[in-house]
Amino acid sequence: MFSNIPQMHRATCQKLGPRPSLRFKKYGKYYDLSWTDKLNRVNGLAAGLIGLGIQKGDRVAMLAENSAEWIVSDLGILSAGAADVTLHAPLSPKQAAYQIGHSEARGIIVSNQAQADKIIAVLDELPLLEFMICIDPVKVDCRLNVMTLDGLIQRGKLAGPEAIAEVDKRVESLTSDDPITIIYTSGTTGNPKGVVLTHGNLTSNCQMTYDISSVSHEDILLSWLPYSHIYARTVDLYMTAYGGITLALAESVDTLVQNLAEIQPTWLTSVPRFYEKIWSSVEALPDEIRAKTLRKIFGPRLRYLSSGGAPLPVYVCKGFWDSGIPMLEGYGLTESSPVICFNTLEEHRPGTVGKTLPGVEVKIAEDGEILTKGPHVMKEYWKNEEATAETLKDGWLYTGDVGEIDEDGYLVITDRKKELIITSAGKNISPSELENAMLANPYIDQAVTYGDKRKFVSAILVPEFEVLGKKLKELGIEIKTEGEFIANKEIHDFYMQQVQEIMESFSNPERVKNFLILNRAFQLDLEELTPTLKVRRKFITGKYSKELDAFYES
Question: What whole-number distance in Å separates Cα of residue 541 and Cα of residue 381?
Fold first, then answer.
């Protein structure tokens, strides 16, 4: 067991040397970065940061999109003995300012001019910020010490053997209890909480996850999830470093299908939203053609798919299995580093998130809440003793999720504890169960339910526009909008028929009785989705509360 992430990464670099560590596309062409070359860049950056005065335990923020430079920056910060504060790239200047200021970061690494401009816009609110390192060259005029990433790496390399020796000393001094990162979780109200994870949290979690995964250094993982999020950080970055797996970087979610064809990976990690979109594009095909189409999309070498970050609809999971592509769902949260449970090729059950990792404990509280204990549980919430005390009790992490463990040890998640709908008649309703049932309908792409303390349940629906378009063409109907909503009575009546058929399997108090139809999909840049594309239910219902409340007034 390694005591810290840089130590673990170095061991693989020394073992695999010239073999490809990273594969990425630049100027329309793929390039490989070997384990040796990556380590040299990491050490150069760490030496450069130490030359800037970074001490063990300091915080350095990162505001950048996925790239090979993001990975080098992360490992360079950690190798200098510091902890990084990984900000989600779409954050607004105000949001970024809060996380940088609250974490007391001394410096920041940004990707480009747009991200640098965000920092400059709020610089007066960040008196502790001393320097800005830019992956791409930028033009700024400010009090910060500004330099390029390549320039700082070169400065560190030129500092000589003594500087690299200091990096070695910093790495060896890091213990499993030292903080590795602060990740701010997206809350529905108020400022987000900073989750403090340690080197021990992440080394143990990536090693335990690797031990149950059927992967080796012969595999190629295609990666696109944001590295600022703990799911991709642990599984895509650190687990691959532990196992010596080549990590191929997708250009973006928009090019993911194209990148699949180019890379032909053996393994892909993603979130349900992507798999749902792929499934909806092939669902109407005959079984044999559907299977061939999916295999063509994901490539001939793919061995299995991993899903996490949000609940995966059972029909999607079963559909992939029936088409000959293993789909393995897991479960975790930022506070648990993140993996708690995962299905494996040997032990899997669609509709569950698998069994607990070796060394991880899970139990169900009397009220149904899922609790977990083990080396994966966070250290604390940064500068928030009250929230820490509410979430960590006697070593157990109170996840806020509700679920049950079946007779064979598989965990089933039913919902978020705080998001259960309790109607005015006292009926407890699971919004996820209702939403997943509606998502199985080919005409519904996204769904959010509403109705806490109300007489009945209502919803906001997002159509599967391609499928709906074909239907409306048959009927000779054009979409009419009113604000952000589709206003056609004929379309509303059509969806009412769909919803009523879906609701037949639910009791009367649980059924969705009315709904709004949005004229667009929920969007990340409007804060309607989390970085892993999970719907932010309370934010959305709050945003459209006036329109939803009108159902109950009438």
Answer: 27
pLDDT over threshold 70, residue 413: yes
Q: Which residue has the tokens 């949260």?
A: 333
Please report whether residue 27 resides in a domain. no
Q: Which amino acid is at 456?
A: F
Please give the tally of structural domains in the chain.
3
Q: State phi, psi for 289 to the nearest 5 degrees.
A: -70, -40
Residues 288 and 157 occupy one common structural domain: no
Q: What is the CATH number of the domain that holds 470?
A: 3.30.300.30
Confirm whether 321 is domain-assigned: yes
Burial class (CB in 10 A: 0-12, 13-18, 19+), 40: middle
Are 253 and 295 within one domain?
Answer: yes
CA atoms of 45 and 51, how far apart (whole Å)? 10
Paired tokens of 426:
């006292």
Residues 6+ apart with CB under 8 A from 417: 367, 368, 369, 400, 401, 402
Token pair for 199: 């080197």
State the Cα–Cα distance between residues 233 and 5, nearest whole angstrom: 11
Q: Is the dihedral of CA 211, 213, 216, 221 positive or negative?
A: negative
Same domain for 411 and 424, yes or no, is no
Indicate if 340 and 470 belong to the same structural domain: no
For the chain, how many helices (H) and strands (E)?
20, 29
Containing structural domain, residue 113:
37-192
Inside any domain, residue 14: no
What amino acid is encoded at 426 in this protein? G
Instruction: Name 169's Cβ contacts closer than 8 Å, sequence gap at least 6.
Output: none
3-state secondary structure of 347: coil
pLDDT digits (tens, 9 = 90+) for 382-405: 999 999 999 999 999 999 999 999
CB 311 within 8 A of CB 412: no
- Domain endpoint, select from 382, 416, 450: 416
Q: Residues near 124 by Cβ (< 8 Å), separated by ≥ 6?
A: none
Residue 293 has pLDDT above 90, yes or no: yes
Which ranges of 132-177 would DSSP assign to H, the alpha helix?
149-158, 161-173
Q: Does any domain span residue 484?
A: yes
pLDDT(553) > 80: yes
Q: Give the helix ranges, DSSP H, for 255-324.
A: 256-263, 272-282, 287-298, 314-322
Beta bridge partners of 108: 61, 132
User: What is each CA distance from 277 to 289, 324, 438, 467, in whole angstroms?
Assistant: 17, 18, 15, 12
The residue type of 374 is G
Q: Is 378 a residue whose pLDDT tops 90?
A: yes
Note whether 340 and 218 are same-domain residues: yes
Query: pLDDT tens digit string along 111-140?
Result: 999 999 999 999 999 999 999 999 999 999
Which of 486, 488, 443, 489 minimizes the C-alpha distance to 466? 443
Number of residues that make up the chain: 554
Domain final residue pick, 172, 192, 212: 192
Considering the domain architecture, whether residues 65 and 165 belong to the same structural domain is answered as yes
What would you measure as the largest C-alpha separation in the chain, in angstroms?
76
Question: Residue 393, SS3?
Answer: strand
Please give the Cα distance from 343 to 352 (Å, whole number).
8
